[in-house]
Specification:
The chain has 810 residues and is mostly helical. It is built from 28 helices and 4 strands.
Length: 810
């Protein structure tokens, strides 16, 4: 039986419910209130508010889509994003919740069923929201939109917003849902249970390989940002003891006092950031915290091993929550800065590079490579691995899944919008000077290139020779504003480097420097003025490293679960599939850290080796993994007997397959873009005998890397094709046999819950009533500190622009 019986006893008079409220309160057989049934409540004021939101959203989209030949304010991007997210969260995500997920708070989640105090440990929904957001938000939402901006802002903003609404957030939420229904099992194990051993083995091997590559790649980006930066090393390093203090404080000293713990962590975090700046300027202390890349690799591997092996509540959850405080706090500061500075967009809606495949930031046509470049901000397969096996083990109630899964992905998409604004509001000439490599500058400059000229002069020559127009239709220029003066040409690039405390900003490819400059531009507008540009620039570099590192520690834990499930399918090693077995946890954690740590160390030691050799395949492999996630979700929806709603995951699945398979085919077979074509070109250069020893060694490395990337691309394509074929076969067989329902899946049977927790970030009036009754009946204090909620509006629907941060309304 999957519903709880009504209570025999009545609530205390001060907690009396109206008849409608009483119908919505979920009780277990002991009469305890354990949840609130979701319901969309409409009133005329709410209808008017949502109508205004929809109208504002439509106007904003019209401005972005139809603006031609005139500059527009970047504030419109914020308006469009926030309105679109609010509507999507309130209506589309809610539709999926009631039609597919059919969440039931009477059913115990894995955290309550197992509750081992280490891996299966419930986390306050606000803390878990932060931990999940920190786990999924790596480098993608920061640098992907910046690189894609070369083709104009319109394709990017369309994919970032519409992609997350209909694909990325749907994938994350539904993966979290199916895992929570299956005892928090990992992606690979669920595939084995639902699609058979063939499908399970395929996706498990795929996952382990892709996760190792992803962790090494993300760690490499973070290390580049932290190397020789005592400020970043100290501030980020201090988040570890701060997290330990927070974890112990909430568990032992003040159980459940989330707001107190948050305040404590925030104060300590600010102190660590300020202290980092002081240490960096101290000639005695700075050398102590100045680590080179190899030292940082060792430190990061040791930390990641500890984070994955220790109990979840002790280090990973509080540290990621702490990171989220900084992330969301910084995003809020950036939003305010954009509104105050009101920067004008310099990039056109669609640039001339959109019709070409030789753009400087990434090669390839708009379709499919723009949708590969913008990964995490719209859709990411790695998110599916986090949403299965990791977060489900800590979620308190099924009705929290929409807020955690869908809501956190919307916040990440908003991060991508901020990054896009940073790229399109600086001078286009500065943007391309930053993101063109030295060889690209030489090629673009043509006859105007001079070996004796400065990098800045050659960059200006290259920009002047490119057929790229600004938003007003004029040839782009290199300009920079500083202290009321507009600089042009090489002088502009020199002044920009001086303002941010760098010797040069030319050829700082990858997007990180572009984001840092844009972020510093926004923050200086109201926090310190022109003189603080260098401070905010270096703060942004640390911010980017923090964004990435919080994904690495969670990714290691995800890889540990995947390796355990993979080994658990081997006879004699089945105990590895039990996440509560501590020896197995240590062994699988060691394997996970050794896999990506080895690739990372090799990449740091050799610019052409290790993870450096596999960076080009990261984007496509990640998006192929997203196809695997959506395929598994589609299988589970069909097997649950919800075939008429299977279009919800199937439509983004078809789109993702079209994008990733096209990209992979081009990277394998295309004579200009393909890895094997590149290998042939390097082979010809080697055979020519015209290379000096240094160039010859580099050519051999490039040849090996091209063959490696080509072979891995073929491997990933074959593996995912086989997995999709297995999934399609299971769906067809299920429909033909008409064997629907939970009894034909690996879904755990109903177990009655005895816990109560609100659904959204802010408890509603009805949830506060139910919580008070729960405390009275159990004779214990609530496990969460909701005192702050008393000062909030009772109706979350009255705050439509905060729609991404509210739960099921009461």
């Amino acid at each position: 039986m999957d519903t709880a019986a009504s209570a025999a006893s009545q609530p205390a008079p001060q907690m009396a419910y109206t008849p409608e409220e009483e119908r919505r309160v979920i009780r277990n057989t002991r009469g305890l209130p354990i949840g609130i049934r979701p319901k969309m409540v409409w009133t005329w004021p709410k209808a008017i508010i949502w109508a205004l939101v929809a109208i504002t959203c439509a106007i904003g989209w019209s401005v972005l889509a139809l603006a031609r030949g005139e500059r527009i304010s970047a504030v419109w991007f914020l308006v469009v994003a926030l309105c679109s997210y609010a509507i999507a969260y309130r209506f589309y995500a809610y539709y999926i919740q009631i039609k597919i997920m059919r969440t039931n708070d009477a059913n115990a989640t894995p955290a309550e069923r197992v509750h081992d105090g280490a891996n299966f440990e419930r986390a306050d929904r606000r803390v878990l929201f932060g931990q999940h957001f920190a786990a999924i938000s790596g480098a993608g939402p920061l640098v992907g939109p910046i690189l894609a901006a070369q083709m104009g802002y319109l394709p990017s903003v369309l994919w970032i917003i519409l992609g997350v609404i209909f694909a990325g957030a749907v994938q994350d939420m539904l993966m979290l849902w199916i895992s929570a229904k299956r005892r928090g099992r990992s992606f690979g194990q669920m595939a084995t249970d639902e699609m058979g051993k063939v499908g399970g083995v395929i996706i498990s091997v795929f996952l382990v390989v892709v996760t190792a590559i992803a962790m090494a790649f993300l760690a490499l980006v973070a290390i580049k940002a932290m190397a020789s930066s005592p400020w970043a090393v100290f501030s980020l390093g201090m988040t570890i003891p701060i997290a330990l203090i927070m974890g112990c404080y909430e568990r032992f000293l003040r159980p459940g006092r989330v707001i107190e713990t948050t305040a404590l962590g925030f104060v300590l975090l600010v102190a660590a950031i300020v202290g980092g700046g002081m240490i960096a300027s101290n000639p005695t202390l700075a050398p102590i915290f100045t680590l080179d890349a190899k030292q940082l690799v060792v430190a990061l591997v040791v930390y990641s091993f500890a984070a994955a092996a220790l109990p979840h509540w002790l280090l990973v959850t509080p540290r990621d929550y702490l990171s989220t405080l900084m992330k969301i706090g910084t995003l809020a500061l950036l939003v305010v800065g954009i509104v105050i500075a009101n920067p004008q967009v310099d990039m056109p809606g669609i640039s001339t590079l959109a019709a070409r495949s030789d753009g400087p930031t990434f090669s390839g046509n708009l379709f499919p490579f723009l949708f590969i470049t913008i990964a995490c901000g719209a859709l990411s397969g790695f998110h599916g691995a986090v949403s299965s096996g990791l977060t489900p083990k800590a979620v308190e109630k099924e009705n929290q899944i929409r807020m955690i899964g869908y809501g956190s992905m919307l916040v990440e998409s908003f991060t991508a919008i901020i990054a896009l604004i940073a790229a399109i509001t600086i001078s286009q000439g500065v943007y391309f000077s930053l993101n063109m490599s030295a060889p690209q500058i030489k090629a673009a400059a043509g006859s105007a290139y001079s070996a004796s000229a400065s990098p800045e002069q050659n960059a200006v020559a290259a920009v002047g020779n490119m057929d790229v127009k600004d938003i007003e239709g004029n040839q782009m220029q290199v300009t920079w504003q500083s202290h009321g003066t507009t600089y042009k040409g090489a002088e502009a690039l020199t002044q920009a480097a001086h303002d941010v405390g760098e010797e040069s900003i030319v050829s700082r490819t990858g997007g990180a420097t572009t984001f840092a400059i844009g972020m510093a531009n926004f923050l200086k507008s109201y926090l310190g003025g022109e003189g603080t540009m260098a401070f905010w620039y270096h703060f942004a570099i640390m911010f980017e490293a923090l964004f990435i590192l919080t994904t690495v520690d969670n990714g290691t834990r995800v890889a540990r679960y995947q390796i355990g499930d993979l080994l658990g399918n081997v006879r004699g090693l089945r105990r590895f599939a039990d996440p509560t077995w501590r020896p197995g946890n240590l062994i699988t954690t060691f394997i996970a850290t050794a896999a990506w740590g080895t690739m990372l160390y090799m990449g740091v030691a050799d610019a052409n080796g290790g993870i450096n050799a596999m960076v080009p395949i990261f984007g496509i492999s990640n998006q192929l993994l997203a196809a695997g996630c959506l395929m598994l979700v589609t299988v589970c929806v069909v097997k649950a007997g919800l075939t008429k709603y299977a279009w919800i995951p199937a439509v983004p699945l078809v789109w993702d397959v079209a994008v990733t398979f096209t990209a992979d085919f081009q990277k394998i077979f295309d004579p200009q873009l393909g890895y094997f074509a590149a290998a042939s070109a390097w082979r010809a250069k080697i055979d020519s005998g015209a290379l000096d020893p240094a160039a010859l060694a580099a050519a051999h490395a490039s040849l090996s890397n091209a063959y490696l990337d080509g072979a891995l691309s073929v491997f990933f394509l074959v593996m995912m094709t086989a997995f999709l074929a297995v999934g399609l076969k299971v769906c067809v067989a299920t429909v033909r046999s008409r064997r629907y329902g939970a009894e034909f899946t690996s879904e755990e049977p109903f177990v009655e819950s005895s816990w109560f927790a609100p659904s959204g970030l802010f408890a509603t009036k009805l949830e506060r009533k139910a919580r008070a009754e729960y405390e009275l009946m159990t004779g214990t204090a609530a496990h969460v500190d909701e005192r702050r909620d008393e000062d909030l509006d009772d109706d979350a629907e009255a705050r439509p622009l905060a729609g991404v941060a509210v739960g099921v309304p009461a």
